[in-house]
Structures are given as structure tokens and as C-alpha cells.
Amino acid sequence: MTTHRRPKQPSRTRVTVLTSAAAAAVAFSAQAATAAPGVKPSKNEVKARVDALSEEAEKATEEYDGAKEKQDKLQKEISALQDRVARGQGELNALRDSIGAMATAQYRSGGIDPSVQLLLSSDPDDYLDKASALDQVSGKQVATLKQIQEKERALAQQRAEATEKLKDLAATRTELGKKKKEVQGRLAASQKLLNSLTAQEKATLAAEEDRANRSSTERVNLGSTPSASGRAAAAFQAAQGRIGTPYVWGATGPSSFDCSGLTSWAYAQAGVSIPRTSQAQATIGTRITSVSDLKVGDLVFFFNDLHHVGLYAGNGQILHAPRTGTNVRYESMGTIGGPFMFGVRV
Q: In this predicted model, what pLDDT tens digit does every residue of 224-282 receive, in sequence order?
């Protein structure tokens, strides 16, 4: 008799993978649909795709910066913990040596009394339970053993804490590697698209970028920047001095920057420490929701996830590090590619 088995249902993990793959396929198809099969995309179509990929790369860059900052912080914390453990172990060894010295002295004077035998016990807690009943135990011996107990507990706690931080560090390094690959993948895709252009089309795009960069330099030379005050003025002036410096993802200056790398570096030159990433920078200072209330040197944030930041330059302009392939420059807030969310006065 033939038996009919119920088909095995796919596991949740497999369903998730298939769903993700399907979503990726749909996204790829949508992108491919912008140009008819066999038809070479125009310069403007290529530029639009490159800009979109650059935007994705910048978002991944901010996530990379956050993971990098977390890694650096964990490494410092682990190093400090390891130093404390090493010092604590040295102090514990010294205390144990002092107990050994007591035992040696008593042995030479006629034998080790019961109190010292208990002090040398492998179970100090058991000793303390019994020590109160022994008249022979000196106050100094009890105090020393209590110190030993406290040191052992502290060392155990510090070692456990260090172990947890090492696990966190390993996970952060894995995340860092993924984000790095993501950024590199987006940039490689952008470069592949640019390579598909003709020499004339490449020259036209390069000329457009050159005009944008030249406009920033001319503005500084004309001295048309509105005045700022205090540390915001110092930060803005520092950023002005880096106009023309290339955007490099993950860079914090002074020879190259990403968007939040420029703002954090600029404020550092003014003696103000602000967080490394754009999302973290958005949580400090006084929030300003209206463009009309912004002042020169205020931080300005764009896109719903706040992955882009610059310095307000007045007259609806910002000074920022835009994206890969560009330099630090002035730009209209309306050309950023994403909505202005709010400003922050540091």
C-alpha cells in the first residue's frame, strides 16, 4: 500500500533567507528596469544611480564609524580592567606572602598554632566561620584574611567583566567587518557604473564636480560667509580651512574626512569634544527645528535616519564633506538629496 507523506515545511531560517533573497531580486530588477535591455544608460541615469549608491555607502559608513568607536572604547576598557586585575593579583600575592611569613615565624618559635593553620586553609570562608571561636587568632591575622577574601572576590568579578567585554569586542569586530564590506561593495558598484561612461561623459561629470568645488573656494576668498561667535565660530573656521580636502569614508582628518569626521574634528579644534557619528552628534546640545533659527557653526542633520551631518554656513548653505568622489565644500541645503531634519547648537 502506498503511503503519502506530508511535505516537510521549510524552516523559519530558510523562509527568512528565501524572503531576503526574493526582496533582493525585486530590488535588483527594479534597478535594472530603469534602462531597457541592451540599451546603454545615459550619463544622467548613471549619475543618478551612482548618487544613490553613494548615499547607501554613506549610511553604511556612519554605521561603520559607530562600530569602530565602540571597538576602540571596548579595547580601552578591557586594557584598564586587565591592568586592575594585574595590580590586584600582585596585592593578593603580597597578602598571601604575609600569611606565609606569620606561619614561618611561628614554626621557628615552636610550631604553627591552630589559628595560622586555618589562615593557610584553602577555604578562607570556612576559616572565618570558625575563627571567631578561637582565642588564639589575632586581630591582625583576621584583618589580613578578610583582605585576601575581598581581593579574591574583586578579582573574580573583574575577570568575569573582562571576559564579557572580550565577547562584546569579538561581536563588534564582526559587525565592523560586515560594514566595511558593505561600504566597499557600494563604492565598487559606483565605480563600475562610472567606468561604463565614455571619456566625454566622464569629463563632463568631472567638470561639474570641479565647478562645485571651485565655487566653495571662491566663496571663501570673497569673504561672503556670515559671522559666527564663540566656539561655533572657531569650529566653523577650522572646517573652512579644510575646504578642498577629499571625502574618504571612515576618515577623521586632517587630510581627509567623512561627514561626521569633519564635524567632530572641527569642534575638536575649538576645544569641544563631540561624539564621532552623526546619529550620536544629534543627541547633544540644543535642538533647532527651524532653518531660520540656525546660526553659523550649528550642526545640521539630514535624512530620516540622520546619517548625514554638516555645519550650517548661513543663507541656506552648509559646509560639509558630501560623499565619495567629492571634497569638503559649501552646498545648498536643498541639494543634499535628503530632507533637513533639525539642527543642533553645541
A: 556 677 999 999 999 999 999 999 999 999 999 999 999 999 999 999 999 999 999 99
Tens digits of residue pLDDT in 41-75 = 888 888 888 888 988 999 999 999 999 999 999 99
320 is catalytic: yes
Among the options 53, 145, 239, 259, which is catalytic? Answer: 259
Per annotation, catalytic residue among 179, 308, 323, 329:
308
* pLDDT, tens digit (0-9, with 9 covering 90-100), for 90-145: 988 888 887 776 656 555 555 555 555 555 556 656 655 555 544 444 666 777 78
Whether residue 4 lies in the annotated active site = no
Q: Is residue 259 annotated as part of the catalytic site, yes or no?
A: yes
Active-site residue, selected from the candidate residues 151, 307, 320, 323: 320
Q: Which long-range contacts (CB under 8 A, 24 or more apart) does 50-56 make?
A: 50/190, 50/193, 50/194, 51/323, 51/337, 53/186, 53/187, 53/189, 53/190, 53/193, 54/186, 54/190, 54/323, 54/324, 54/325, 55/323, 55/337, 55/338, 56/186
